[in-house]
């Protein structure tokens, strides 16, 4: 007979959790980790990233994070279209978590009793069945703590995966983020030489599927669960109504544009948990790009546009050479212009370098 908890969470994932827990050498794991130093990190909302060392200091440690799941309505465009969002820590995407290779990432995940749905977290960076999804599945009013060893350097997506059709629905409702596992000795260029960044920004790209009413207007719902049937029908058409950066069209433009100065090197982390995308910095380049997001592989150089596979995150490094406003887009320009996948970098300082680009002659009437 199913318990109430199994009925709420789903028997498949519950069975997987029992099997996984039974197979875990709990005592050995606790012994290995007990003597390691611990560091508590307070997460920040994207596009910003919590303070971290680019090169590890000392040996491995346990890095402790805490995230609360929040179900809430979010306006996703200038027309007031509402998404009944499911979020990690209240933001879309969820916060970027940074550790070093060999560290242990320990997350306490909280599902407040004000929520209505069960949630969990699947870490692509983790080693083990379902990425920790079976071990973290919690009802409203519950919390759970998961620890995994960061054995591979790179950028890795995490997302909610409660089972069955709930998985894509939760993901396209906002429940994804990224873990960055830095090499202990920091990033390297294609020749193996150390490279550093002055700033880091995290851009999470999301595709949303908002149902419309009989008049073609986007519908609103009272809670996350109320829109499930209608949203699944739109999802199965595979045509998003919105493709946005950081939860909303225009969220990283104007006053919220990402900032840099001429001469600064910026690391851009870009994730897409569900669909392929093609980031492009208009007027700039990817000096060094880990297109697949894995720092054990040498970066590609001087890319104009790079490819991020659905369900992954990548990293690109660029040193800004000219002042001005740079558009950062998904170079499916229909999605960038029509559906919302556009951001801006505002770059100050320095003077314009005519040798790099200049207007030789202003517009004038065509000479006869």
Structural overview:
By secondary structure, the protein is an alpha/beta fold. The model is unreliable at 1-8 and 20-25 (pLDDT under 50). It is 13% helix and 33% strand.
Strands, helices and their partners?
Blueprint: H1 4-9, H2 11-23, H3 26-34, E1 38-40, E2 62-75, E3 82-88, E4 96-100, E5 104-111, E6 122-123, E7 142-149, E8 154-159, H4 166-171, E9 176-182, E10 199-208, H5 228-235, E11 242-245, E12 258-261, E13 265-272, E14 279-281, E15 286-290, E16 300-303, E17 312-319, E18 324-330, H6 333-339, E19 342-348
Parallel strand pairs: 1-2, 2-5, 4-9, 10-13, 12-19
Antiparallel strand pairs: 2-3, 5-7, 6-8, 8-9, 10-11, 13-17, 14-18, 15-16, 15-17, 18-19
Keyphrases for this structure?
five-stranded mixed β-sheet; alpha/beta; 368 residues; six-stranded mixed β-sheet; 13% helix; single chain; 33% strand; disordered N terminus
DSSP summary: helix tally: 6
What general form does the structure show?
A: flat
SSE series: HHHEEEEEEEEHEEHEEEEEEEEHE
Mean pLDDT across all residues, rounded? Answer: 93
Compute the number of strand runs: 19
Rg estimate, integer Å: 22 Å
Low-confidence stretches: 1-8, 20-25
- Termini separation (Å)? 89 Å
Strand content: 25-35%
Q: Name the helicity range.
A: 10-25%
> How would you write the strand order of the largest sheet?
11-10-13-17-15-16
């Amino acid at each position: 007979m199913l318990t109430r908890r199994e009925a709420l969470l789903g028997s498949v994932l519950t069975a997987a959790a029992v099997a996984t827990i039974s197979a875990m050498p709990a005592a050995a794991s606790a012994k290995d980790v007990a003597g390691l130093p611990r560091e508590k990190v307070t997460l920040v909302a994207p596009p910003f990233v919590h303070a971290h060392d680019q090169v590890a200091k000392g040996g491995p440690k346990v890095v402790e994070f805490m995230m609360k799941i929040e179900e809430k309505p979010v306006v996703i465009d200038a027309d007031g279209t509402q998404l009944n969002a499911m979020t990690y820590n209240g933001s879309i995407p969820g916060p970027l978590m940074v550790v070093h290779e060999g560290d242990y990432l320990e997350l306490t995940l909280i599902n407040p009793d004000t929520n209505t749905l069960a949630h969990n977290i699947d870490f692509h960076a983790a080693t083990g069945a379902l990425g920790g999804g079976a071990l973290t599945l919690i009802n409203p009013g519950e919390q759970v703590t998961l620890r995994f060893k960061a054995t591979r350097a790179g950028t890795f997506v995490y997302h909610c995966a409660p089972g069955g059709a709930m998985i894509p629905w939760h993901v396209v409702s906002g429940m994804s983020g990224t873990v960055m596992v830095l090499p202990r000795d920091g990033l390297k260029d294609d020749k193996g030489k150390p490279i550093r960044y002055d700033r880091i920004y995290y851009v999470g790209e999301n595709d949303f599927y908002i149902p419309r009413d009989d008049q073609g207007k986007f519908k609103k719902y009272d809670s996350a669960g109320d829109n499930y049937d209608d949203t699944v029908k739109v999802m199965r058409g595979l045509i998003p109504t919105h493709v946005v950066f950081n939860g909303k069209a225009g969220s990283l433009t104007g006053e919220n544009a990402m900032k840099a100065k001429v001469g600064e090197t910026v690391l851009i982390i870009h994730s897409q948990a569900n669909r392929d995308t093609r980031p492009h910095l208009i007027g700039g380049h990817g000096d060094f790009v880990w297109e697949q997001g894995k720092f054990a592989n040498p970066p590609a150089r001087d890319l104009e546009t790079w490819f991020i596979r659905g369900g992954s995150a990548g990293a690109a490094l660029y040193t800004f050479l000219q002042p001005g406003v740079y558009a950062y887009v998904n170079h499916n320009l229909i999605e960038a212009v029509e559906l919302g996948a556009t951001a801006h970098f505002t770059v100050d300082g320095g003077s314009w370098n005519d040798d790099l680009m200049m207007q030789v002659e202003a517009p004038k009437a065509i000479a006869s």
